[in-house]
Design brief:
single chain; alpha/beta; globular
Length: 91
């Protein structure tokens, strides 16, 4: 199965990549370069073309201070973007 892992260079993302490879899956890892959480449109288009069998979303804005200062950004990046990715992944 082809599995996409977002946030693939973070601690959790790296573990997911290794676990998937260890289980014989074809793994594709996306970093901030492939998926800008603040402007996810290009990543969403790429996801629609890639059509992985599964998506493991490990990317997030983990800067707590920034998220507290800008709750709208935090909701967009950590709430709306994952929702959009999930909707496209289900297609």
């Amino acid at each position: 199965m082809l599995i996409l892992v977002t946030g693939s260079t973070g601690m959790l993302g790296q573990e997911m990549m290794e676990e998937g490879k260890g289980r014989g899956h074809a793994m594709v890892g996306w970093t901030r370069r492939e998926l800008d959480l603040e402007k996810p449109e290009e990543g969403i288009r790429k996801l629609a073309v890639l059509k992985p069998g599964a998506v493991i979303h490990c990317a997030a804005d983990t800067n707590v201070d920034r998220c507290e200062r800008d709750p709208e950004l935090a909701m967009r990046v950590n709430g709306e973007t994952p929702g959009k990715l999930a909707a496209v992944a289900m297609e």
